[in-house]
Amino acid sequence: MILMLTLLFVFTVGACVGSFLNVAIVRMPLEKSLLWPNSSCGNCLQAISWFDNIPLISYLWLRGRCRTCGESYSIGYFFVELATALGFVGLFWLEVIADVHHWPCPDPMAVSMSVFPWRSWIGFGWHALLFSFLMVASVCDLRTREIPLSLTLTGTLIGLIGSTLLPWPWPHESATAGPPILMAGDMASWQTPDNKLLHGVYCWPFWGPLPAWADGGGNWQTGLATGVCGALIGTFLVRAIGFLFGKGLGKEALGLGDADLMMMAGSFLGWQIIIVAFFLSVFPALLFGIVLLIVKRDNSLPFGPSLSLSVLATCLAWHAIGEHIRPAFFWLELMVATSLVIGGMMFVISFALRLIRGGGAGIQ
């Protein structure tokens, strides 16, 4: 019973957040204030009363119409609220109840009674905040093929503040005070005695072995460095790949909004998740592109939704993914060699696509 009430609470909070996200989706591309004026009908310009602005319920009660003039509202408003509510519940279930990150649980008996640790609530809230930013970016990209810079810059700033306040390995104790941490050569093996990865709100710190000033992690210096590295690598990764594909194809391949989105996500999660998420995003992008082509006959592909989905999925699955790819992220020579090989392959593939599409005829 307590668990059901908790899930209902999370669902309600998610729906309320979704209602605010609708405001952001409409106003941010137009550079309007999110707080003033109050929501109003786009047809009769009458302010919407609070009882007509209850998330989900008001839309169903009024059948998606304005109470004053009867003008229809887009069903997209309802779906954003519903998707946000369900997303919050799913995120809460995986991170707090199922504990996919293996965050510390000080009182198993309390958890069995659906009384969850406050640290788990904060970790969930942090990732739910990222989910909200990604939701706005994705819907804006779908609607206008642009991701507002004001959104991604604000998200990046908040991400850097959070990285400072929630440094790796939080919510675990610091690496020097907690379980023994094994440092081996140029690679870091952060494991508890039962061979589980020490995985915090930020999966791993910015590098390993950690330098002396990081003092084993758990301090603001480690946190800020992790957030800054995530933001920088997130944006430069997409810009570099966009540059290579652009040179090969002879036209712009990835928008700057996609790079800004990954900058924001990197400040929330760190750089390792961002790199994996970017390459995994190809699969939902292909599927989404096919659906868009069939349903709307639209061959333009907004990449933001695929990036957002991949970022969240990679974050939730990192405890299973990280163990297998850890050496590739903490062996500098291997990282450089892999980057050069992948970059060269991308340029060759994009140039081949250019020739196949007939773009090579103009080359002198």
Structural summary, described in words:
- This protein is mostly helical.
- The protein has 2 domains: 1-144, no CATH class; 148-359, no CATH class.
- Helices cover 61% and strands 2% of the residues.
- The protein is built from 13 helices and 2 strands.
- It has helices at residues 2-27, 57-61, 75-97, 108-112, 118-144, 149-165, 220-249, 256-269, 271-280, 282-296, 304-316, 318-329, 332-356, and strands at 182-184, 187-189.
- A two-stranded antiparallel ribbon has the order 1-2.
- The chain is globular, with a radius of gyration of 22 Å.
- The N and C termini lie far apart (73 Å).
Short synopsis of the structure:
This protein has 364 residues and is mostly helical. It is 61% helix and 2% strand.
What are its keywords?
364 residues, mainly alpha, 2 domains, two-stranded antiparallel sheet, 13 helices, 61% helix, globular, disordered C terminus
Present the secondary structure layout:
Elements: H1 2-27, H2 57-61, H3 75-97, H4 108-112, H5 118-144, H6 149-165, E1 182-184, E2 187-189, H7 220-249, H8 256-269, H9 271-280, H10 282-296, H11 304-316, H12 318-329, H13 332-356
Antiparallel strand pairs: 1-2
Helix pairs in contact: 1-3, 1-5, 3-5, 5-6, 5-11, 6-7, 6-8, 7-8, 7-9, 7-13, 8-9, 8-11, 9-11, 10-11
